[in-house]
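=== RUN LOG ===
request id: a7f3
mode: sequence -> structure
chains: 1
length: 308
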Amino acid sequence: MKVMIENFQTNNVVETENLTKVYGQKTVLDHVNMHVAKGDIYGFIGKNGAGKTTLMKLLLGMAQPTEGQMKLFSNGNLNAERHRVGALIEAPAFYGNCSAVENMKRFAILAGADDNEINDILQFVGLGDVGKKHVSKFSLGMKQRLGIALAMLGKPELLILDEPINGLDPEGIKEIRDLLLRLNREQGVTVLVSSHLLDELAKITTRYGIINQGRLVEEVSATELMQRCQQKLHVITDQPAVAAKVIKKLSPKAVITANENSIDVVGITVDSAKVTKELVKNEVAVQDITFAADNMEDYFIQRMGGKA
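=== RESULT ===
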C-alpha cells in the first residue's frame, strides 16, 4: 500500500489524501482528497455505486485502502481516534425481538458506553416513549432514528451516516433532517452524511463533496454553491471591461465576472432593459443580453456525470 502523508491540515476532522480502493480490476475510489472541517454537516453526494459507502467503510476500518492516507482528528493513527466516531452504514442491524432500550444496552457493551446515557439519547432522537415495543414493529423512520441513537453511544464528536434518509417518507425525512441539525447545533457534532437526494441534503448541508465514478470532482461550501446558482445577467460584448464599469454604476453591489467576450453579473438590482439602455448610451456594442439561473439539481447532475 502506497502511503501519502504530506499536506494535511490540522483543522479537519476527516482528511484523505489520494485515497484509492481497487477491487479486482475495478477502481471504486480513485485518488480521493476529502476535507471535513470541525462543525461541518458535510453532504457526500453521488449516484448509487459512485463510491460513497466504500469511502466511509475505509474511514471506519471496515475495509483497507489500496493506496493513499486517511486522518481522523488530524491523527494518522486511526485506531486511536475511531472511538470518537459514531456510524450508521447501510441498513442498521437490530435485535428485532428486543425493545429500543434493550438494543441500546447490548450495543453500549460493544461500544464501551455508559448505560446512563441511553435514556437521554432515546429522548433526543424521539424514541423516549416507545416503552417495551419490539423493534421489529418499528416503522422505517423509527428504525433509522434508533440507528442514529446507536451511533450516538459514547458521545461521538463525528457521525458518519450512509444514506440515513433513503426510503423514508417526507415526514421521516424531516425527522432525520431535524435530528441532524440538532446534533450539529446543540452538541457540536460534525456530520458526514451521504445521499443522492439533493434537495433534502441542501436544507442542512454546510459543505458538499461531489463524487462521480470514484473521483471526488468537487468540494464546495453551501454559500459558494448558492452564489453559483443565483440568477445571472449574461452580456455578450466585445467591450467587457467598459460594460462592467457601466453596470457597476447602475448596481454597485453587483458581483461582476468579466470574460474575453462577455460578462456575468450576479446580484444586480435593475432589469435588463435598463442595463441595455445604459450600455447603448455609453456606446458599448451588445450582441446579446439574457438572464439565466443555474438550477442546483442541474449543477449536481452535471458534475455527477448525468442523470442522478
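=== NOTES ===
The CA atoms of residues 253 and 303 lie 30 Å apart.
Residues 170-187 form the longest helix (18 residues).
=== END ===
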